[in-house]
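In this section we walk through a basic example: taking a raw amino acid sequence and producing a predicted 3D structure, encoded as discrete structure tokens. The instruction is simple. Fold the sequence below.
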Amino acid sequence: MFIDTHVHFERFVKEGALEAMLARARDAEVREMVAIGGSAPANECVLKLAEEHPGRIFGCAGYDRDEAVHRPDLAALREWVADPLVKAVGETGLDYYYSADTAAQQKRLFAENLALAAEFGKPVVVHSRDADEDTLALLGDYAAAWKGDPGRLGVLHCFTRDARFARQVLDLGLMVSFSGIVTFANAEPLREVARHVPDDRLLIETDSPYLAPVPMRGQRNEPAFVVHVAKQLAELKGASLESIAESTASNARRLFAL
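The resulting token sequence is shown next.
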């Protein structure tokens, strides 16, 4: 059984495509999914889905970097994070590739998300692009403030950086998650990184509806396709698909307290 640890459900819900997508996931043995927040509408969607699909869809709530310039309601975020249906804070983080001009606001918002994660003892789902040093600095402060299980700090999702950054993230205590990008033709450097991530710190995700893996490129991504990410990791590690499914699912259950 596979667990897709990063799904953006809003488009599927808006287009009336949710039930068919969930059926295809079930047929592919993807029985559990982590629904990702990031904005007020996304967080509300996550909570609704987690309530309607108990034991199948688990929620995260947070404010992502795009919200940094909108002065999001932190009191509302506190209420969402306090909800037992919310298993983690996120997605949140930094992206200087598209929005370097808002770096200061992004860092402030990321720190506020991290403070709530530490306060409520819930892991954080982190986005980081072209912001390695600032991401590590803020995560270091978060790790120092964390009072819970040291294995449940969080995850660097959709990992695309180099081996050095992977090692620094792992050294802080976070997990690392790979998406369909690891299957892309030009991703050999990333595949080399994936080979060396310890099995007990490894997660798989789709980041649906984005980044469909090979051989599904060009299609809208969905949780059923996470199997292709697992197959790629099994090949890289010289392991069976079953063992990758088992280890990544076990890691997801531990991290998100499923």
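Looking at the output, two observations stand out. The mean pLDDT is 97. Residues 189 and 242 are 25 Å apart (CA to CA). In the next section we compare this with other chains.
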